[in-house]
Amino acid sequence: MQQVLEKALAQIATLPDAEQEQIGRQLLSHIEKLQRLRQEIDEGTRSLDVGEGSSLDIEEFLKQQRTRNGAP
Length: 72
Fold this sequence. Notes:
Layout: H1 2-12, H2 17-49, H3 58-68
């Protein structure tokens, strides 16, 4: 992984400054989203570990998500 990241950074360094900035902002945004997701997963896991979970109707959940996301 480290080699891939180093290669990507080396290639980014050859781009104009404005493009480097844009890529940097996008990468940081992506990392922040991953960190928030990881935190939410950890909180959910802890909640389940202490018995705070409840059953889920998966079909109803998917229906709600489709409606929320504008799918038919």
